[in-house]
Every structure is written in structure tokens, then in C-alpha cells.
Design goal:
With 254 residues, this protein is α/β, with parallel strands linked by helices. It folds into two domains: 199 residues, Hexapeptide repeat proteins (UDP N-Acetylglucosamine Acyltransferase, domain 1, 3 Solenoid); 34 residues, no CATH class. It has three helices and 24 strands. A seven-stranded parallel sheet has the order 1-4-7-10-15-18-21, with no helix packed on it. The radius of gyration is 24 Å and the shape is globular. The model has no long low-confidence stretch (mean pLDDT 89).
Length: 254
Amino acid sequence: MPKRKNTFSSWRGRLAQRVVHAGWSWAQRVGSVTAEHPGRLRFGSIGPSTRLAFPLGTVFGEPWIHLGSHCIVGEQVTLTAGLMPDLDLGPDPILRIGDGVVLGRGSHVIADTTVTIGSDCYFGPYVYVTSTNHSYDDPHEPIGKQWPRMEPVEIGPGCWVGTGAVVLPGARIGRNVVVAAGAVVRGTVPDHAVVAGAPARVVRRWTPSDGWQPPLRTPAPVPIPDGVTSDQLVALSGLDEETAARLARLEPER
């Protein structure tokens, strides 16, 4: 037999849900970290319009973490400098993040030695960047008790790092590089390359003399002409592709 609907309980449930959602939205706004409202965190520097979303991931060694301007750090992102909290790491920054960097939700940047991320890099969720790796030289000692190896990591400006990618100690990634989702990067990656796989290898690269090799399989996106309004874009979305392309070609002549 179907249960009778309890109108009072349903009303109370909806009200409680609204209260919870409103409270969580408030906590996200108040708990986010900016240069004006750093909370307990005292970064070496944090640029204007940079925001760390709440809830935060693990953050320590922040005096040796320098964040550029206009960065977006997603929820549950871990940023650490040094092997553990409360160490004196010297006068120089350990983790340096350039302007306009986006770190996706749940990503980790572990800088036990120098890690540099160039400006305008975009990370998908759950990317892992580390300057430290476990050693296993002694076959009689548990791996977790052996002293780790550390090598600096550098990611050039303008890179796109896909979901779940791993960047290992010693990696040197050039400018405007695409790292495919799930790739494991080690060693040097040249500028304007696409890398994929574990370990990652170059699957496509651009050079001034040859362009993209192998050639791109899809045409480059057509940029929106200057002066086009959002209302015009909405109107164009209802047209067939041929008509929309014809109008786009005519736009510069108007």
C-alpha cells in the first residue's frame, strides 16, 4: 500500500534543504581566500583577484608559496612547500604560480623543492604535480622509510594539463603544451607539443616551418567577429550551419 504523503514533513524537508544550501553558499563565499581576506594563511605573495575556493585542501609552507594575480584555485586543492609544516625553507620561494593560472578541483601541487607554473596555465581536476619521488635503492628497507629524491619541476606558460595527469620530479614542460588526461610526464617536453600516455610521449607538435605534424584532424575554431552581441549569437544558434557561416563571412563587410 502506498504511504500517505505527509505534507508537514515534506514542507520541513524542503525548508531544511534550502537552509543547508544557503548556509553552504555562505560558507563558500566567506571561507574562500583572497589577498584581502587571507584568513589564517600568510602566503609569500598573493596577487589581486586571485581566489582559493572553499573548502581548501591541505595548505602549508605558505610563506614560500607565491601566487600571481587573477588565479583560480578550485575546491580541495593541495598546495604545499617543504616536506612538512613549520620548516625553515630559506629566503627564496619554493612554489611559484604565475598570473591567470587555473587549478582544477582536487589537484595537488607538492613542492618539496622548486616548482614553477607559468602564467595562463589551465589544470583540469585531480592533476598531481610533485617535485619528490620515493626511492627504493635499498631492497631491505621499506620504501616509505627511504629518503626521497627531489628534482625541480617547471611548467611553461600557456599550458593545458588534462584531468588526472601526473607531472613527475624533474619534468620540464615548454610553452603552450597540451598534456592529455591521465598522462604521466617526466623529462623534457618541447614548446607547442601535445603529449599523451604513461610515460607521456609527444604525439603532435607545431614548428614554424612545418606547422602541426601530424596535421590537425579538425579545422581551427572560427573566432567570433568583433562587435557581435550575445543576442546575435543566440539568434545565430537557431540557424543552420551553412547560413550561419555565410553571415559570419559577411560580417566584416558591414
